[in-house]
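hiii so um. not sure if this is the right channel but i have a protein structure encoded as tokens and i wanna go backwards to a sequence. like what aa goes where. can anyone help
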């Protein structure tokens, strides 16, 4: 049984830049025919108590919630090394981490790390990215965001090339900051996902594919 997850969502509760109210998000996820979604706030993971409250609202509807986080990696010179989605960690990664250091830490804690929108162009254009860009070739990442609303067809082609070279899967996420974007890009799991452990394991095994819905 295939299941559909939006892997990348920000809410106004913990991301100042988002307009999405968490309870509204549950209704929209059902509307978008998702089986679940991941919360990936900037620089933090939802506190367990708050996350469990939201999960209790979602569960009766058959929605599986995943508590992730989106971390902007920075090197020792404080230069951006790209954004990464992290899952399976039990605490917020609030410090400054270089990308390689972040990947190591996440794997030490049995989590997974995904390069978020690696080829999303920055305003400086051309080869300046809001993501890791070609650095993904040198990082022990578990998956790459393939479909993302800010990935051009060229960006998609670049990710597909990297997926093949690195032998890792592509995933899809909406990076929604507004409610109607929820579910615009999704990750399709080959198997039924009951919880975070299933979710992490299936991505690690590569039993997923990305899908663009709009
Ligand atoms: Zn990002
Ligand atoms: Zn994001």
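sure thing!! here u go:
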């Amino acid at each position: 049984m295939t299941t559909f997850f939006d892997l990348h969502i920000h809410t106004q509760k913990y991301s100042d830049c988002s307009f999405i109210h968490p309870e509204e998000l549950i209704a929209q996820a059902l509307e978008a025919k998702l089986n679940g979604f991941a919360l990936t706030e900037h620089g933090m993971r939802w506190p367990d108590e708050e996350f469990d409250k939201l999960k209790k609202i979602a569960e009766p509807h058959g929605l599986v919630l995943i508590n992730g986080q989106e971390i902007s990696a920075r090197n020792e010179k404080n230069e951006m090394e790209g954004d990464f989605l992290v899952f399976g960690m039990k605490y917020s990664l609030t410090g400054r981490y270089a990308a390689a250091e972040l990947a190591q830490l996440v794997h030490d804690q049995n989590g997974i790390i995904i390069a978020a929108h690696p080829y999303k162009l920055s305003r400086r254009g051309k080869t300046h990215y809001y993501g890791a860009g070609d650095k993904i070739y040198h990082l022990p990442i578990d998956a790459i965001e393939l479909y993302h609303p800010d990935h051009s067809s060229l960006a998609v082609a670049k990710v597909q090339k990297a997926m093949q070279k690195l032998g890792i899967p592509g995933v899809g996420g909406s990076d929604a900051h507004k409610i109607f974007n929820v579910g615009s890009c999704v990750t399709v799991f080959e198997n039924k996902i009951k919880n975070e452990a299933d979710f992490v394991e299936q991505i690690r095994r590569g039993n997923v594919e990305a899908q663009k819905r709009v």
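oh and The beta strands are 3-9, 36-39, 64-67, 69-74, 80-87, 112-115, 143-147, 170-172, 185-189, 208-212.
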